[in-house]
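Minutes, project check-in
Item: structure for the 181-residue chain
Input as provided by the requester:
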Amino acid sequence: MTSGTVTTVSSNGTYSFTKPNREVITLLAGLGVEGDVHAGVTVKHRSRVAQDPTQPNLRQVHLIHAELFDEVAGAGFEVAPGDLGENVTTRGIDLLSLPTGTLLHLGADAVVEVTGLRNPCAQIDGFRHGLLKQVLGRDENGEIVRKAGIMGVVLTGGEVRPGDPIRAELPPEPHRPLERV
């Protein structure tokens, strides 16, 4: 599925695990979500800053598929949009199967280039004990499967609202699968 819909948008100007839902967010080219603590040219996630504060910010925008919330609800976990710190919650587009370099057209103007997978961390268990095991697992070959969404950088700015369409533009082949960023 290479198209879908934005269900919720979220941002937070201070560090916290969850992000409040908004009526609209503005994506800024090369920076991320206007007013969000993770916006910037260089890394803003605390663990990344501690490693090297000069590395480029490949995690300007965090997108999660609402289908993940449906899946974890089946295991008894109540998770709502914004709860896992994402900026954009989607429905109908298979985010995890997109290749690196996919361009996501959000709403009328915004374009986000997919850089990789979010690496779920222990903070998820702090939010809901046992949830990390639901969003981080292993496939039949023993390979790690990360389900907590994807990350991207803003190529073209614009406003994004719930109800906006999302269209994925795949990069030229050969496609590179998403890796942790």
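Outcome recorded: The first strand starts at residue 3 and ends at 10.
No further action items on this chain.
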